[in-house]
Amino acid sequence: MKVPMLLLFLYMFVCSLDVLSSAFQLAGGKVAGDIFKDNAILSNPVAGLVVGILVTVLVQSSSTSTSIIVSMVSSGLFSVEAAIPIIMGSNIGTSVTNTIVALMQAGDRNEFKRAFAGATVHDCFNWLSVLVLLPLEVASGLLYHLTVIVVETFQIRSGEDAPELLKIITEPFTKLIIQLDKSVITGIATGDESLRNKSLVKVWCRTSVSVSSLNVTVSTPLNCTSSELCWTEGDTTWTTVNQTLDTHTDKCNHLFVNSGMPDLVVGLILLAASLVVLCTCLLLLVKLLNSVLKGQVAKVIQKVINTDFPYPFGWLTGYLAMVVGAGMTFIVQSSSVFTSAITPLIGIGVISIERAYPLTLGSNIGTTTTAILAALASPGDKLAAAFQIALCHFFFNIFGILLWYPIPCTRLPIRMAKTLGERTAKYRWFAVLYLIICFLLLPSLVFGLSMAGWQVMVGVGAPFAGILVFIGFINCLQTRSPDHLPKKLQSWDFLPGWMHSLKPMDTFITNATLCCTDHCSFSKESDTQDLCAFPEKSPQGKDKLAYENPAIAYLDESPTATPVLTLRGLERQKSTQL
């Protein structure tokens, strides 16, 4: 009974991801089209990178943003060189989905730590790859020249579109909820103002095209369609033109076909509903997986998935995981779906972060092969540009893997993701802050600076980058050889607490949350005021703080007027590194 229920929840989980993508497109699709429309802005590589991130976050689909890019390059609105940074940005933006999915496991600290680390390893890989490959591309045009050679070398011909294997399973259900006309977003991006007021919600699913002849007047015989179809009556010159008429025949059958609501309202309704279904399915999936994968079964599965090949072939295990990740992503045709599906498994400990990393890298490759096959279905005049853009996406991920996987000491994304997981397990609100900063505030700030000109961006960015490098260097020396540093720099204790620790902010958020939860009301009575100012004094406040941070113990026997906190088993706490 548990296995059918597991498959049902997994199906609903995947369908909710599809509806979630549609909701984001309804809410922000036209905005995304407007952003892509300004090709003067996109000629700036940094601005192009940020636009790729923001648009992919808005529409929750790298496939949609990539298809817009291909359409604009094919129509000549901007060059392949200008599109490469946008492709890099879409690679970053697509990793936000599984990071959101990881938030659903925040109830258990250990599961949340593993799930968030498994989700953010994708983010870390993409950000590190961009930091290296974007400057290299701007300086040398590596990806552009390499893809030009590949396109010119191979005899590329149009073929069939990529198989939509997952859509065959999910579309019968999702089509009953919503259907979108994605050509509206592409049309706005390519400058078709006639689509500005057209709704993204598809109303007519089948349209017949008829061609009829129509006599019209022209100014001179030179404007006639042909000499045979040109005649003069008095002072008027006539010609015959063909008129194409679209006749709607079959109306779509989904929930919002006759709603008449604006796209934004429909998008917000679907966004709320899909998030509820997504969270519910994920929680039930985790509970079912915990009940199914327990005891000896869990140990066997963990051993099979996380064990390397015998010596000397152990190094091949990660590359086999990449092949599996690429194959599964090709089947489901979405890296977001695949990485979001393995996130709960990472959370409950079935898949280790070391094994999830190559699976994620393979997923990046799998989603680019789908784009390549889709590009091969383009018309002959658009094939070269479409195929070249798809190849840029492919080689970007290949070079990223070569940078951050083959040598174990270069697998920085794993260490970065583990650090983020530990931090979010300690301060759960940090996960939301991470999402807002990395996918909204930081890209928006960089976009604004890049629009102000390269002088402003260098003037602001260079000192900031220098400070980050200095902090990293000092942190490294503090850990490895503090004796080589001046006494004052051997720790960050000389700085204010909020500059080298998240504890002050955590205290503020905890107190605010406890006051809201306990419905503290500030009155003239001193006891009530004391409880609101120090919610830890109440038994409920103590219980909640002890649950939130088991390392904290209260000294009730202390005679001091304010609560005293000690760390169990620790007599001295080292300063927190920046």
From TrEMBL:
Catalysed reaction equations from the record: 3 Na(+)(out) + phosphate(out) = 3 Na(+)(in) + phosphate(in)
Membrane topology: Multi-pass membrane protein
InterPro entries, per database record: Na/Pi_transpt
Transmembrane segments: 39-59, 127-151, 264-286, 319-345, 383-407, 427-450, 456-477
Highest taxon of source: Eukaryota
Keyword field: Cell membrane, Disulfide bond, Glycoprotein, Ion transport, Membrane, Phosphoprotein, Signal, Sodium, Sodium transport, Symport, Transmembrane, Transmembrane helix, Transport
GO terms (BP aspect): intracellular phosphate ion homeostasis; sodium-dependent phosphate transport
Subcellular location: Apical cell membrane
Pfam families named among the record's database cross-references: Na_Pi_cotrans
Quaternary state and interactors: Interacts via its C-terminal region with NHERF4. Interacts with NHERF1. Interacts with TMEM174; regulates SLC34A1 internalization by PTH and FGF23.
Name of the protein in question: Sodium-dependent phosphate transport protein 2A
Organism: Acipenser oxyrinchus oxyrinchus
